[in-house]
């Protein structure tokens, strides 16, 4: 997908291109700023901005295990500010704003390390489904 430079006042980052790769296992996002990121589907799924994952307050956030092999099946524009990602585990409620996709890319190492630590602390792993 290529997006025209249509901007809303609140967003700071604007995508130039979003492209699914590796059979839906990778979302490549290029921003107008020149930065680009390869975001694994597993990472996008466990960091979904949906209330189902994030809850309504930080204490409700869920740590999802068993998502190593998840894939993105659809990328659907939401207005001019975001995309809805659908996953092959039937999760479809995450709306990823441009700024959130940029944050996921820019802070990928930090966020992924935190996620792995949460899995370990909750006796979950990337291959076994479960949530705590």
UniProtKB/TrEMBL annotation:
<dbReference type="InterPro" id="IPR038492">
    <property type="entry name" value="GBBH-like_N_sf"/>
</dbReference>
<keyword id="KW-0479">Metal-binding</keyword>
<feature type="domain" description="Gamma-butyrobetaine hydroxylase-like N-terminal">
    <location>
        <begin position="20"/>
        <end position="102"/>
    </location>
</feature>
<dbReference type="GO" id="GO:0046872">
    <property type="term" value="F:metal ion binding"/>
</dbReference>
<dbReference type="Pfam" id="PF06155">
    <property type="entry name" value="GBBH-like_N"/>
</dbReference>
<protein>
    <submittedName>
        <fullName>DUF971 family protein</fullName>
    </submittedName>
</protein>
<keyword id="KW-0408">Iron</keyword>
<dbReference type="InterPro" id="IPR010376">
    <property type="entry name" value="GBBH-like_N"/>
</dbReference>
């Amino acid at each position: 997908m290529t997006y025209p430079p249509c901007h809303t006042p609140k967003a700071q980052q604007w995508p130039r291109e979003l492209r699914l790769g590796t059979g839906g296992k990778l979302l490549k996002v290029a921003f107008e700023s020149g930065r680009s990121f390869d975001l694994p589907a597993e990472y996008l799924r466990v960091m979904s901005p949906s209330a189902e994952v994030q809850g309504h307050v930080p204490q409700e956030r869920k740590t999802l295990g068993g998502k190593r092999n998840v894939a993105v099946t659809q990328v659907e524009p939401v207005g001019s500010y975001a995309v809805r990602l659908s996953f092959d585990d039937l999760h479809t409620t995450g709306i990823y704003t441009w700024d959130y996709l940029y944050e996921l890319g820019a802070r990928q190492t930090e966020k992924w390390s935190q996620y792995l630590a949460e899995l370990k602390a909750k006796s979950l792993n990337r291959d076994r489904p479960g949530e705590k």
